[in-house]
C-alpha cells in the first residue's frame, strides 16, 4: 500500500505543471522625476538606458518583469508623499552615490517589487568631478566652442529590498565627442546625431551587458558566458572604457568589435 502511495505522489509531481519563477524589478533612472529642461528636448541618458533595460527584462520570457517608466511616473504622481520620497532618494544617489535603503524599500513595495534597479548617468571632465547632464554639456560646448575631453559615466546598482543589500552593481564609461575632443552641435541635425550615438551605446553595449548580468543574479545557469578574453582595463569587477559607437551592430560585427557586453561572476 505504501508503495502505491509513493508511486501516486511521484506521478502527481511528474504531471503537475511547473510554475515558472518570475522576478519583479522596479527600474528607476535618476532623472525619472526631473522635468525635461534641456535645450534639445532629448530624453536624459539614464532614461534611455532604463527603457532599454526594461525592454530586455520584459523580453526575457517571463524571467524578469518590470513596469515601464510611464506606469511608474503615473503611480508616483498619484501619491505625492511617495513621489517626494523617491525624488529625494534618486537625487541623493545621483549626487553622492549613497543609497537610502528605507526609501528604496518603500518604492519597491509600492510596485510589489522586491528588487530595485537604479541608474544614473552624467558627464564629467578630467579636471573635476562636477556632474553635469550630457545635453547641458553639449549645449555649453556648442555655444562657447569648447573642445574638452568629456566622459559619459553611468552607474547601475541592483538592490534586494528584503535584505537591504546590493545584489550587483557596475560602472560604464565612454568618451563623448570626436578624437579632437569636440563634442558640439551647431544645429539640431548634429545634436540629433549625438543623441542617436548615445541611444546606440545604450542599446548595444550598456543595456545588454547590465540585463545579462542581472539575469545571471536571478538565474545563474540562464546564460552561457561569452568565450572571449577581456582586454579592456576593467578597473575592478568590470568597467567599460569605450567611445560612443558610430555605426550599427552590423558594422560592429564586420569590424569584429564586441557590442553585447561581457559576463562577470565574481562580485
List the helices and strands and how they pair.
Blueprint: H1 2-15, E1 23-29, H2 45-58, E2 64-65, H3 69-77, H4 80-96, H5 101-110, E3 115-124, H6 134-144, E4 151-160, E5 165-175, H7 188-218, E6 239-243, H8 249-254
Parallel strand pairs: 1-2, 1-3, 5-6
Antiparallel strand pairs: 3-4, 4-5
Helix pairs in contact: 2-7, 4-5
Biggest β-sheet: count, sense, barrel? 6 strands, mixed
Helix content: 40-55%
Q: List the strand order in the largest sheet.
A: 2-1-3-4-5-6
Query: Which range does the strand content fall in?
Result: 15-25%
Assembly of the depicted chains: single chain
Whole-number tally of structural domains: 1
What would you say the CATH architecture is? Answer: Alpha-Beta Complex
Q: Structural class, from helix and strand content? A: alpha/beta
SSE order, as H and E?
A: HEHEHHHEHEEHEH
Indicate the low-confidence ranges by residue numbers: 225-241, 251-267
What is the name of the CATH topology?
Maf protein
**CATH class annotation:** Alpha Beta
Mean pLDDT: 80
Question: Whole-number radius of gyration?
Answer: 21 Å
Q: If you had to describe this structure to a student in words, what would you say it looks like?
A:
By secondary structure, the protein is α/β, with parallel strands linked by helices. It has a single domain (19-254), classed as Maf protein. 42% of the residues lie in helices and 17% in strands. The protein is built from 8 helices and 6 strands. The protein has a 6-stranded mixed sheet with strand order 2-1-3-4-5-6, sandwiched between helices. Helix 2 crosses helix 7 and helix 4 (80-96) crosses helix 5 (101-110). The longest helix has 31 residues, at 188-218. The chain is globular.
Amino acid at each position: 500500500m505504501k508503495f502505491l502511495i509513493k508511486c501516486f505522489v511521484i506521478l502527481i509531481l511528474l504531471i503537475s505543471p511547473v510554475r515558472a519563477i518570475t522576478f519583479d524589478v522596479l527600474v528607476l533612472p535618476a532623472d525619472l522625476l526631473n522635468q525635461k529642461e534641456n535645450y534639445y528636448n532629448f530624453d536624459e541618458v539614464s532614461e534611455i538606458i532604463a527603457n532599454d533595460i526594461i525592454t530586455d527584462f520584459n523580453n526575457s520570457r517571463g524571467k524578469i518583469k518590470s513596469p515601464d517608466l510611464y506606469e511608474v511616473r503615473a503611480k508616483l504622481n498619484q501619491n505625492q508623499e511617495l513621489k517626494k520620497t523617491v525624488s529625494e532618494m534618486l537625487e541623493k544617489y545621483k549626487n553622492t552615490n549613497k543609497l537610502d535603503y528605507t526609501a528604496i524599500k518603500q518604492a519597491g513595495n509600492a510596485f510589489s517589487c522586491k528588487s530595485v534597479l537604479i541608474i544614473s548617468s552624467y558627464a564629467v571632465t578630467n579636471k573635476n568631478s562636477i556632474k553635469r547632464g550630457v545635453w547641458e554639456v553639449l549645449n555649453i560646448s556648442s555655444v562657447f566652442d569648447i573642445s574638452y575631453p568629456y566622459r559619459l559615466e553611468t552607474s547601475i546598482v541592483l538592490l534586494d529590498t528584503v535584505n537591504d543589500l546590493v545584489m550587483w552593481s557596475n560602472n560604464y564609461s565612454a568618451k563623448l565627442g570626436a578624437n579632437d575632443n569636440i563634442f558640439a552641435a551647431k544645429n539640431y541635425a548634429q545634436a540629433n546625431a549625438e543623441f542617436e550615438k548615445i541611444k546606440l551605446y545604450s542599446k548595444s553595449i550598456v543595456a545588454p551587458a547590465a540585463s545579462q548580468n542581472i539575469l545571471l543574479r536571478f538565474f545563474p545557469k540562464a546564460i552561457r558566458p561569452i568565450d572571449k578574453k577581456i582586454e579592456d582595463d576593467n578597473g575592478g569587477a568590470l568597467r567599460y572604457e569605450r567611445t560612443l559607437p558610430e555605426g550599427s551592430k552590423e558594422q560592429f560585427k564586420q569590424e569584429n568589435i564586441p557590442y553585447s557586453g561581457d559576463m562577470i561572476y565574481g562580485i
